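User:
Can I borrow your eye for a moment on a structure tokenisation matter? Would you put together a sequence-and-structure record for a protein of your own picking? Please set it down just below, with no commentary around it:
AI:
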Amino acid sequence: MSKKNPSKKQFTVLLIAIAVIGAGALGWVITRPKGGGEVIDPNMPLGTAQGFLMGSPDAPVKIVEFADFECPACSEFATLTEPDLRERLIKTGMVSMQFFVFPLPMHKNTWPASNAAYCAGEQGKFWEMHDRLFYTQDLWNGLATSSPDKKMKGYAKDISLDVSKFEACFDSKKHYPDIKASGAEAERFGVSATPTLIIGGKRYFENLSYDFIKKLVDDEIAKLGKADTAGKRAK
């Protein structure tokens, strides 16, 4: 005996069920935080876009960096290229570097990581936390853990912070408006990828090797030398 085809009524019920399930799934996609991370209040007020400086403020060449602590390319830059940059350009007084956080929406734990860096900065150890975060990125990023807070507080102890003060700062999230402002600063500069360096007023986000940066720095110093010579002649 052949099977009977579903009635029109059964078919209509099935379509309605599919529509309801589809609408629910769409609603979840729209309302869930991008990347599945912490929900950030879109109405949060802007704080202060604070850049963290390494090197002499009087260095002839100033580099501005925009980076995301959970960005793999940023970690690669911080761990492979930046050590040479620090030793050979920053410590010699040729260059200063100012770091701005730029939390990207696809990264789950970038806001807690940025928060940890800001709170470490309150105790004068932004760069120590910066290094800790980038060198251990695979231990706390979105693929490794959905609850990064314990890791961040552990890092505070590792770099000899006053842990109770750090935890009070971290838990309060008082720097979140500043982190938001830092991201807005990146957008103001037209930054759309991380890491991005601004050297001599130009944006660079590819080929960020030490040799490439050194050439840009040398070019800027040469320009300054020509400007000084022209100024002396004008006098």
Notes: Residues 52-224 form a domain with the Glutaredoxin fold (CATH 3.40.30.10). Strands lie at 52-54, 61-67, 95-101, 196-199, 202-204.
